[in-house]
Amino acid sequence: MKDRSIQTTSVERVLRESDFIVSKTDLKGRITYGNRIFIEFSGYGERELLGAQHNIIRHPDMPRAVYKLLWDSIQAGRECFAYVKNMSRDGSFYWVLANVTPSRDEQGQINGYFSVRRKPKPEAVKTMAALYRAMLNAEQAAGPRDAMAASGKVLADHLKSLGASYDAYILSL
After folding, report:
1. Facing residues of 110 across strands?
2. Is the Cβ–Cβ distance between 21 and 118 less than 8 Å?
3. CATH class of 20-172
4. How many C-beta atoms surround the C-beta of residue 65 within 10 A?
5. What is the pLDDT of residues 157-171, one digit of tens each?
6. What end-to-end distance do the CA atoms of the chain give, in Å?
7. Whole-Å CA distances, 66 to 16, 131, 153
8. Which pTM does this prediction carry?
9. Domain ranges across the chain
10. Of 138, 134, 166, which is closest to residue 150 (Cα–Cα)?
11. 109-158 per-position pLDDT tens digit
């Protein structure tokens, strides 16, 4: 369970060029595996991570609509790329470019999710941070009931203004 008492800080941790954060979850988003880089950047021990919800590392600067898009994609059997700001146990943060894919059993049924994250380009982080701020502002203005739709609209309007799909936009950064 996510510790709501963790206070965010302005301390940024930056992945090394050779770092790949890998984790696996079950269908409910509970962590079943995390590599040593995941453990290092999350700030949690392996025992604390295994069985915990993956949102244990969710940073409050992340808009809800990004996670909805991600979950909708992977539950439909598609991979999803996303820039994500994660929070470490000590309140520091780190940005990643995540690739999340469904894992399948021998019969082709989705039985979990697999995520590989790597160091994002700094200019992409600046672009996404600005977009995420606009999405969060829309969420806050709309209130809890309409927050998801409001931030989703900001994202959809942004993509429409660029004439790009979400996937094309993310991969172009």
Report:
1. 104
2. yes
3. alpha beta
4. 23
5. 999 999 999 999 999
6. 33
7. 25, 11, 11
8. 0.94
9. 20-172
10. 138
11. 999 999 999 999 999 999 999 999 999 999 999 999 999 999 999 999 99
